[in-house]
Amino acid sequence: MIHDWKMELYWRLPAAVQEFALSLYAGHLERLYYGPGYQAWTEQFRILQTRTAPEIAEWQQQRLRRIVKIAATRVPYYRENWQGMDSTFSALPRVEKQSLRRSEKKFLAEGVCSKALWTEKTSGTSGTALRIYWPKSMLPQWWALVEVAIRNVAGVAQDMPRAMFGGRTVVHGSQTTPPYWRFNRRWRQLYMSSYHISKATVADYVKALRHYGSEWITGYGSVIAALAQSAIEVGLSPLKMRAVIVSGDTLLPGMRRSIEKFFECKCYDSYGQCEAVCMAMECPQGRLHTVPGAGIWEILREDGSPCRPGEVGEIVATGLLNDALPLIRYRVGDYAAWAEQQDCPCGNHSPIVTDLEGRMDDYLLTPDGRKIGRLAAFKRSPSIHSAQVVQDRPGHAFLLLRPGQNYRRRDADAVCADISERIGEYEIEVVEVPEIPKTAAGKNRLVVRLAEHPELRPTYERLIKSLASVVERAA
Ligand SMILES: [Zn+2]
Fold first, then answer.
1. The CATH number of 34-160+215-357 is which of 3.40.50.12780, 3.40.630.40, 3.40.50.150, 3.30.565.10?
2. Which helix (H) or strand (E) element contains residue 354?
3. What integer pLDDT is reported at residue 442 of this predicted model?
């Protein structure tokens, strides 16, 4: 989020001043997030949550017609690619992530002023950098949707004190004493480091959660589960929360069990992405409902035909919120199936999905046993086509990197510096490769830990050896 020079400045400040800066920044965000339109959108989405399936579909079709019209008339990418096409929605070509990455600007609607845009960046599960523009007018819609369709479903709200485990480095990776968090007083939000959790530090984390009165927790499931698991292992007494809402990586059953046991509340899984084309939220009955206000879901086979209920296929989604950068039939890169049983006693009639996958828990293991995940370092470098971290032994990894346009060596160094900032002492060797190896399922993985995948070792060893001449040390 924060640019390098801002981060440089941030590290130089004492913790109390850093917290003051966070509160100031929150004030700035608040004007954007909860500004004009927020209340009206909250009402509209609240009503949508109670609608029947046909009413929801009708609401979506109206929004869809509007977005498609903007795309067809004002967006260069669609004007070119839809020329002479059958205008039936299901016949429109799917949009590849690579097309978006190569030319984001061609997806921007003509006549939109760049000052009216908000930039979202992602690393993507494949490590491919992506820049998405949201119109600033979309922010109140987005946050109204998050409040109604995510937080309120879990029985919590934005104005309740909360703790957050995200991808930002709020505390430097080399720090070995508490506090491993910063408190944003304005939102009563305890922003905790995702990179310092271990059995040695867990008691400090739990003490801080108590001290700041956090009532719910949100963030990466793998991180919150690691905290809960460590707390259980060292014998801390449970800490009751109203809810834990996780997103961003695959929530495995064991992770959920640890979270629910230690925090004595339900753990809700949720799904979304910074392209904001589709969203899903687990209901109190444990089913994952699609969120109709965000976008239209399709689950498709490789040939583009729709999957039948229970059949896993790729998620193709059309965002209904972003009219400055419309994404229509966008291949998100994740997989899911429609639930065979679509009735849910919770009262929400939005379609239910199951078997959501693609968001793997990619993390590096440090010699002292910490799991460092969400290595979002590739975001900074649009010149890196894709990348993968391959851990061959504790404390050492290869960064396989496929150069993109305008790539320069210092782009790789920036990635290494970012990883070191999270981890502390760690040795990383950069290897430039023509192609990142994929898993048997054909998917890219951000992190591969060879100790857990001995079958992959020969492939990687061959690859790294064949490129040994270009291997350079970059720790
Ligand atoms: Zn439900």
1. 3.40.50.12780
2. strand 352-357
3. 43
Report how far ligand 1's centroid is from the alpha carbon of 373 (Å): 30
Q: pTM to 2 decimals?
A: 0.79
- The mean pLDDT value of the chain amounts to 87
Residues whose CB is less than 8 angstroms from the CB of residue 299 and which lie 6 or more positions away in sequence, other chains included: 306, 307, 311, 312, 313, 314, 315, 316, 336, 337, 338, 353
Task: Tell me the C-alpha distance between 147 and 156, whole Å.
Answer: 9
Q: How far is the CA of 149 from the centre of ligand 1 (A)?
A: 12
> pLDDT tens, 435-460?
777 655 444 577 888 887 888 888 88
Residues 6+ apart with CB under 8 A from 296: 60, 64, 278, 317, 318, 320
Spacing, Cα 314 to ligand 1 middle (Å):
23
Residue located via tokens 């913790």: 15
Q: What DSSP character marks residue 330?
A: E
Q: Are 96 and 85 in contact (CB under 8 A)?
A: no
Q: Are 386 and 444 in contact (CB under 8 A)?
A: yes
Domain 363-473 has CATH 3.40.50.410: no
How much distance in Å is there from the Cα of 346 to the middle of ligand 1? 4
Question: Domain residues of the chain, as ranges?
Answer: 34-160+215-357, 363-473
